[in-house]
């Protein structure tokens, strides 16, 4: 049976709110924090492998205590156990440090893993760096942006579309793959799954001490980048603000800018005289 | 650190040269930076039959070219490229290394940075220098609504990936010359653990909206697919094309070929209508120099509204309907 690890991350809802697939509208109720969409696709990919040939799935996240929620969500979807890597010293880690810690946590707590899946990127930081860097950390063969995974024996075959090239690649386990959002549309958690995820969830929480990472070591493998400043862009537009009921406002808008628009579209949009 | 001239490297990513000229764009930025740093601009190119690229990179600003040309490097292999680049960087210690944020670059650069134990910032939209010569990497943060200035203080090279289209290339100048070093493939290149089974150029029919004079662009604020598809009508009335933001593409309201922004198309319309779009930098990065921007959003504070010539505070779908109705009434063919 395959031993699969899926790295998942909780992301804040900045702009990319989740969709209600049925009504096609925004789930603003979920605005607090959710599983990063690409990570969810990675969980789905693991669940399909499990359904095909059997697998045990460990979901791992590094984050604040509240990140446990995404582990439960993954367990509700069908993952087997969760690993929460949580330590105050990890706040503000860049991808270099994150991949170091995730690598150590996986090596220690999920020994004998065959396959590590990551999302292709997160919707908040969206560096798409953690997966490839984790592969370096653990010295694994790796492929990013996978659309399809097929397994035969110890060989993993990956299909992907990158830079307008279709590729099929093969490698032996243990290996790491980052999963794109093209395929593996995530399933909904079943009621039984949700109940299980809350009643008898198998979640292990570890800190740096438990992972035998000393402060000195963390410093040596710590962030390479530093954020100097965060700012909002400025623009130098005229910025006329229009408010008011749409029916009139649309007509007023067209009256005001008809010259400009007509010149570009080559048609007159002057209001027709009432007859 | 005496004597040695600083060097700014650009990774030569030529595979999709005819779709994106990101390497040339990075060379141009490297030339800018090199003037301030008194550094050399060096393009590194790995592959087979490289003469075309050596000439091209020379004509576009490289002072030096490091080329590893070998039949076994005919198609891109992340693993082999990593081994070769790691070795070169360790031998020559460049100060800055820029990589195009193509799919390949975004897989390759993080691994290279990790191997070199240095920092990397992703998808930069600007590169500057501090007064003491540190590279300031300006990258979108917090879902694209803000920008962050990122520095790699202690480790070298300072690495950044940059999306195609961010910088403008220097015009081709065939008079330029560069020092070209053709380097041999190291004797003991291990076989790659990831084997390529199939490899082909994907044929895609793409809807070209890059040259449209009018683009009507819709975002998540349009609420649902039905509302979004009404943009087709508006586009038709205005003789323009429809564009979309990424959430909308992910939701299946529009195809990927009309995605506007960093991950999609760059447009430069004369008139841009923007309905229910927040204006994240990854989106606005694709807007070129739109002459006249009309934004409809219920939030007057949205970045898109601040960028607009005319900012309309209203429900996007509602306003779209009224605009279509009003235009229909007015337009005489
Ligand atoms: C590396 C990377 C690459 C990316 N590439 C791209 C890219 O190429 N293109 C792209 O578009 N995005 C890209 N994104 C995503 C980008 O960051 C934003 O998430 C996206 O552009 C937001 O789309 P939006 O404006 O439609 O949605 P939102 O940010 O959710 O904004 C919706 C807007 O609609 C308004 N609104 C809500 N309801 C209404 C209503 N009823 N009437 C009027 N207004 C309303 C809201 O006030 C809000 O301003 C990328 C992200 C990353 C990290
Ligand atoms: N804190 C984290 N905990 C677990 N996995 C993570 C974390 N950060 C990133 N990842 C994984 O790396 C992928 C890419 O993240 P990023 O590099 O931030 O775009 C995510 O989809 C996750 O699979």
What is the tally of helical segments of chain B?
A: 9
Measured as a percent range, the helix fraction of chain A is 25-40%
Query: What structural class results from the helix and strand content of chain B?
Result: alpha/beta
- Which overall shape of chain B is indicated by the principal axes computed on the Cα atoms? elongated
Low-confidence stretches of chain B: none
Quick check: average pLDDT of chain B? 90
Bound molecules: flavin-adenine dinucleotide, adenosine monophosphate
User: Quaternary status of these chains?
Assistant: heterodimer
Rounded radius of gyration of chain B (Å): 23 Å
How much helical structure, as a percent, in the residues of chain B?
25-40%
Number of strands of chain A: 15
Q: Rounded to an integer, what's the Rg of chain A over CA atoms?
A: 24 Å
Low-confidence stretches of chain A: 16-31
Distance between the termini of chain A: 80 Å
In the sheet with the most strands of chain B, the strands line up as 5-9-4-1-2-3-10
Largest interface: A-B, 85 and 98 residues
Strand content of chain B: 25-35%
């Amino acid at each position: 049976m395959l031993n699969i690890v899926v790295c998942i991350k909780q992301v804040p809802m900045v702009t990319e709110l989740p969709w209600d697939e049925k009504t096609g509208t925004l789930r603003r109720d979920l605005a607090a924090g959710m599983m990063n969409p690409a990570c969810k696709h990675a969980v789905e990919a693991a669940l399909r492998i499990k359904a095909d040939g059997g697998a045990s799935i460990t979901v791992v996240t590094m984050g604040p205590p509240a990140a446990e929620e995404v582990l439960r969500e993954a367990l509700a979807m069908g993952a087997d156990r969760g690993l929460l890597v949580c330590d105050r010293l990890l706040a503000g880690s860049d991808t270099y440090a994150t991949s170091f810690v995730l690598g150590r946590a996986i090596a220690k707590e999920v020994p004998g893993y065959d396959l590590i899946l990551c999302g292709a990127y997160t919707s908040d930081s969206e560096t798409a760096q953690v997966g490839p860097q984790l592969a370096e950390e653990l010295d694994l063969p790796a492929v990013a942006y996978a659309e399809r995974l097929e397994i035969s024996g110890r060989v993993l075959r990956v299909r992907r579309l990158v830079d307008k090239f279709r590729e099929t690649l093969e490698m032996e386990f243990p290996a790491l793959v980052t999963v794109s959002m093209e395929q593996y549309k995530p399933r909904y958690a079943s009621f039984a799954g949700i109940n299980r995820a809350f009643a008898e969830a198998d979640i292990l929480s570890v800190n740096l001490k438990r992972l035998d990472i000393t402060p000195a070591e963390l410093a040596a493998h710590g962030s390479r980048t530093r954020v100097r400043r965060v700012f909002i862009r400025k623009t130098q537009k005229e910025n006329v603000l229009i408010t008011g009921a749409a029916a009139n406002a649309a007509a007023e808008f067209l009256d005001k800018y008809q010259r400009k628009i007509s010149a570009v579209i080559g048609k007159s949009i002057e209001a027709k005289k009432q007859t | 650190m005496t004597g040695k001239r600083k060097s700014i490297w650009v990774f030569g990513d030529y595979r999709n040269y005819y779709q994106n000229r990101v390497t040339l764009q990075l060379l141009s930025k490297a030339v800018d930076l090199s003037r301030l740093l008194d550094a050399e601009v060096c393009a590194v190119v790995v592959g087979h039959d490289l003469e075309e690229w050596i000439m091209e990179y020379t004509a576009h600003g490289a002072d030096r070219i490091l080329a590893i040309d070998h039949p076994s490097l005919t198609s891109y292999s992340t693993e082999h490229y990593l081994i070769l680049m790691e070795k070169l960087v360790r031998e020559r210690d460049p100060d800055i290394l820029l990589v195009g944020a193509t799919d390949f670059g975004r897989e390759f650069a993080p691994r290279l940075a990790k191997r070199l134990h240095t920092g990397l910032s992703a998808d930069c939209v600007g590169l500057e220098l501090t007064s003491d010569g540190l590279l300031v990497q300006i990258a979108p943060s917090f879902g694209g609504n803000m920008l962050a200035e990122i520095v790699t203080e202690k480790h070298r090279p300072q690495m950044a990936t940059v999306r195609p289209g961010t910088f403008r290339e220097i015009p081709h100048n065939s008079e330029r010359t560069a020092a070209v070093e053709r380097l041999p493939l190291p004797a003991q290149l291990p076989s790659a653990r990831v084997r390529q089974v199939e490899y082909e150029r994907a044929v895609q029919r793409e809807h070209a909206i890059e040259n449209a004079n009018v683009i009507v662009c819709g975002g998540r604020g349009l609420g649902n697919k039905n509302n979004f598809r009404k943009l087709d009508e508006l586009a038709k009335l205005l003789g323009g094309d429809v564009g979309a933001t990424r959430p909308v593409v992910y939701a299946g309201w529009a195809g990927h070929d009309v995605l506007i922004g960093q991950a999609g198309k760059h447009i430069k319309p004369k008139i841009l209508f923007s309905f229910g779009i927040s204006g994240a930098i990854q989106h606005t990065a694709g807007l070129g120099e739109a002459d006249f921007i009309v934004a409809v959003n219920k939030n007057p504070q949205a970045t898109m509204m601040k960028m607009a010539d005319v900012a309309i505070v209203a429900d996007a779908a509602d306003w779209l309907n009224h605009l279509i109705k009003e235009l229909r009434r007015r337009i005489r063919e």
